[in-house]
Amino acid sequence: MQIDSIRLVPCLVLLLGSCESTLAGSNIYLGQRTTPSSISMNDVDHGVWSELVSTYVDDQGLVNYRAWLASKRDRGRLTTYLSHLSSASHDVAASRSAKLAFWINAYNAVTVEGILREYPTSSIRNHTAKLFGYNIWDDLQLYVGGVAHSLNEMEHEILRPMGEPRIHFAIVCASMGCPRLLNEAYTAENLDKQLQRNAKHFFAQPANFKLSGSNVQVSSILKWFSDDFGTSDPAVLRRIRPWLEPADAAKLRETATLSYLSYDWSINAQ
Asked: What digits encode the pLDDT tens for the residues 161-193?
């Protein structure tokens, strides 16, 4: 149903939870819809993404969206990078590390592009309509090898089935409750070190991990994606131990009471 020209009345705004800047009518496609190529994800160059995030993202993962938006050159370079991702093939053989790095970078680049399209905004949740209207996680889609993929598809249908739980400390939904956005591209060669470094950084933040006696509080990310971390509280605690600060790891008991911290959906802006 085309509703772009309809002015939302107050009661409808209340139902939606916010007045969306982009309403339903069609998806937003990024990259290029090309015929399936023969380019392996092994051969995709993430150098442009690395240069962009090293310029606009600090060591804590906060993004200078205002400066990025003001740079016509670097807005164009992000568009070029997304088109470069489009050239990769789903079918040509690639290493698991190259695929993981590709889709993590793709998820983060599409999210940044989506926020830049809406900025200034206080939260990504302002752009995730529940009833109808634009939902950034479903409607903003990147072409890869001729197939369009939403952020939800990248996360739930591609990345999570690859069995690497540390992706949850690498893909970033532009929120303060997320892991930090790494200010370098993920690469196949450095992937394990990068994932381990960001996982350790994540659990070093009091907003994501608190240990007090026999009580452990962790980020809600581990509740939302519990299937990826363990089927019981003791299993989850065993799983996260390698990512904790040494002092916390030594004090952690698998019999501890596990609960979850509130999630901060405010924008991850400098």
From this structure: 999 999 999 999 999 999 999 999 999 999 999
Residue (of 58, 60, 55) closest to 81 by Cα position = 55
Angle at alpha carbon of residue 235, lines to 234 and 238, rounded to 5°: 85
pTM: predicted TM-score of the whole model, two decimal places: 0.91
Distance CA(213)–CA(205), nearest Å, equals 18
Contact criterion met (CB below 8 Å) for 116 and 68: yes
Contact (Cβ atoms closer than 8 angstroms) between residue 191 and residue 207: no
Terminal-residue alpha carbon distance, the chain: 37
Give the Cα separation of 195 and 232 in Å (integer): 23
* pLDDT of 5 higher than 50: no
Cα gap 172→149, rounded to integer Å: 16
CA neighbours within 13 Å on the CB side: how many for 102?
Answer: 25
